[in-house]
Amino acid sequence: MSLLVVGSVALDTIETPFGKADDALGGSATFISAAASFFMKDISLVGVVGSDFPKEHIAFLAGKGINLDGLQIIEGGKTFRWSGRYHFDLNTRDTLDTQLNVFENFNPIIPEAAKNAEYVVLGNIHPALQLQVLDQVKNPKLVIADTMNFWISGAYDQLVKTLARVDLLSINDSEARELAKEHNLVKAARKIMEMGPHTLIIKKGEHGALLFTSDSIFSAPAYPLEDIFDPTGAGDTFMGGFIGYLAKHDKLDLDHLKRAVIYGSTLASYSVEKFSLERLQNLTSKEIESRYRQFKNLSQFEE
Amino acid sequence: MSLLVVGSVALDTIETPFGKADDALGGSATFISAAASFFMKDISLVGVVGSDFPKEHIAFLAGKGINLDGLQIIEGGKTFRWSGRYHFDLNTRDTLDTQLNVFENFNPIIPEAAKNAEYVVLGNIHPALQLQVLDQVKNPKLVIADTMNFWISGAYDQLVKTLARVDLLSINDSEARELAKEHNLVKAARKIMEMGPHTLIIKKGEHGALLFTSDSIFSAPAYPLEDIFDPTGAGDTFMGGFIGYLAKHDKLDLDHLKRAVIYGSTLASYSVEKFSLERLQNLTSKEIESRYRQFKNLSQFEE
């Protein structure tokens, strides 16, 4: 099966209570495709960077087997940069600086071969651009979208149009409440699913994630970590692990969806152990399987 | 097996976004013993009320088979009253009024027969009174205590003394962080367990509960409710269901502890559906078993 990932590719400058990283590899498309690459081969990344984008990052992504034909490199342009500082609790952060640079005029062009992708993930970009991608792809089995409060408040109408064509929305709990204008998460989920997506994932950070289908709810715990180093990209890493597992098995029944949520949670739990994509660089399949089993111990009980 | 429950018995005046209840039956000992009574018979409640305490509440508790020999009724005294208003999100509340009344001079005297109880639950009262109870009981298999931020900040040294003699502490997440002076919950749990309890339950409200033993962590989801009517007593109801299940089976291995957490969560999820103890009044074993199975669907996944 093949996967198309469209989103941001960025250089992040991150301060946490534990240290600082300058111009670290970041961006939604980056985390999603790197995490998915642990499960499958045929991944196309569509995004945009400037000519300042370090060659080592290109080499890293290519080394993961990710097809970069759709990564536009704008000569003389500067890569999207984000800078943020996490508070002590690591649940909240301040954005210190955002330089959209080449990302400001991002026009996602899907390479011919990637238009046939069975699985499509629309990272957190302007909903109008997400729609532009959907107009280019042919007949995907599953379209997943992520979004954020910025678009919910700033591009609500366009977001609603996009949602009507999305199969699965991935969103965090405060965003779900904002999008549905409803505090209760179960009711909010139902409202959001009336907007289009037949499946919904609500990410709750240190409290895990909820998966809603038309007739069931699955609650996945978060892995209880003693040291969270850098939460940047955790949600995207989750999504990458989730879609990678699904696309690998090419099955969309509830059992596979549940397992995909746990694999997504597994990848995310590793990702936050180090800055940026560092932990994903040397993560092994054995480690993934080991933590998946720990998730089982963590949440399973006998009749 | 027999269970001793010591704690408050109160009349609560509660405002939620959905309604108001005046002088409703409340108090930690009340919720704990009522919830435990769904699983076992031999329960003694020790607490204090005034002569204004409605006879119907006595009848209700007695009707649940709860032994009230240890419930002191102070002639001419007034029952402990608490009044609070829940915010729209139901996660936060303002205390409008607290009248300790006869509870101010509560001196827990354990009836002779109840001193032999195998299971003891110390509801959320002053840690010095909790210790007083432990000085009276003979040789319990399991001592559970609850506490709150009020005692953590106001009676820290006495709380530490009590914790040294407690087997299992039940506490909410913000209180765990405050008690351990540590934001990370896993680290906080380890610190608290160094203070005495070999088992720890951290309640996370709408995010479920965590059970820590010396060598394992179990994460229980919260039941996804569309309508939460009144969260008062949810933590105590949880504890009652938990201890009731454990005492019934008289086994303390990890499998039983996990199941007890799910039964506790089941009882709590019903309790919040109506004001005060209303929902527990007509709750059936069939409903309990049904929701227990739903908890399984909610959290279980295949290898």
Structure description:
Two copies of one chain form a homodimer. By secondary structure, chain A is α/β, with parallel strands linked by helices. Chain A has one domain (3-299): Ribokinase (UDP-N-acetylmuramoyl-L-alanine:D-glutamate ligase), CATH 3.40.1190. In chain A, 37% of the residues lie in helices and 26% in strands. Chain A has eleven helices and 13 strands. Chain A has a nine-stranded mixed β-sheet, sandwiched between helices. In chain A, α3 packs parallel to α5, α6 (173-180) packs across α7 and α9 crosses α11 (285-299). The longest helix of chain A is centred in the C-terminal third of the chain and has 18 residues, at 254-271. The interface between A and B is large, with 37 and 37 residues.
